[in-house]
Amino acid sequence: MPVTNAIAAMAPDLAAWRQHLHTIPEVRYGTKRTAAFVVERLREFGVDEIHEGIAENGLVAIINGQKPGRTIGLRADMDALPMTEETGLDYASLSPGAMHACGHDGHTTMLLGAARHLAETRNFAGRVALIFQPAEEGGAGAERMRREGIFDTFEIAEVYALHNAPGTPVGQFYTTPGPIMAAVDEFTININGRGGHGATPHATVDPISAAVAMVQAIQTIVSRNHYALDELVISVTQIHAGTVFNVIPDTAMINGTVRTFDPAVQAMVIRRLEEVVQGHAASFGVTATLDYGNGDPATVNDPDCAAFAASVAAEVSSCNANAPREMGAEDFSYMLEARPGAYLFVGNGDTAGLHHPKYDFNDETAAYGASFFARLIERALPLGH
Hints:
Low-confidence stretches: none
Strand content: 25-35%
Strand order of the largest sheet: 1-2-4-3-5-16-6-15
């Protein structure tokens, strides 16, 4: 069963919805206009319930099937990124400093397409809960919607989500059982020394020398302190110190990110970072503090749900059911902590990469994603005889 014919026929509407959403990007929890557009479409489709104001501008809509049964959740993120668009498209962002550079406009559109099909056909027994989420990009909107009780309130038994994948042929899916995306943490090291003239370094306690040594030592955590087959990334992404060429500053700052799948590996990294920071601080005569922030946890697919979702995706197009893990992060992880489910990727074709100022969601992808969502509900909640 390829792309559902009724959904393929929606292609002009899907493209129009998506391109309109692309013009009105909103970041984090400020997705007011986006949510209003979604609500307007859902009312046109005749869904049974619309619950607004969850996690500020998130919403859950309910479609009832022809018979009672379980409730399956389908999630789409709505927020954009605080970036300036450089696509030059006719439908480019009209919001200065905001851009749909991750394709959440497309994710919202795919779920709207599935909603229209499911509301028209209702070829299932049970309920579908359409979850439109704000603040995926750094705001943990999924965690907030979970904390505000959507899974208990709407008795959601399982939950599924899609993300577009630039560089993968349009419509091809991939996923994997177990962990699929990493936990993402952030660390900041603040170093305090004693500044002075660059011509008399002996009269200073140089925080820059300490910072450079710490950064070099941090690189050895991956290469020397963990098992090579346990995925781990530690990236130092910022070093800030000083203001002029001839003054040794009082302070320096190091910032970076840690990506892990295993809590034991994460704990080892925290311990070693603290040892590196304090050991080098003592060695260089400075004082230093480590501020380690735990971010979104690893995104972990339920193996049975992932296998089921992959079989559905294979009916729509093709699906690699055992794809490699990715070191990026996704706050859908919080929803998968609350309920079993699965996270999949769908190909976006040969486009600019995610979070790139020239990125654009491929409108051809929308019918594949909408068909997947609709078919998943029909298979998970069969009407029977």
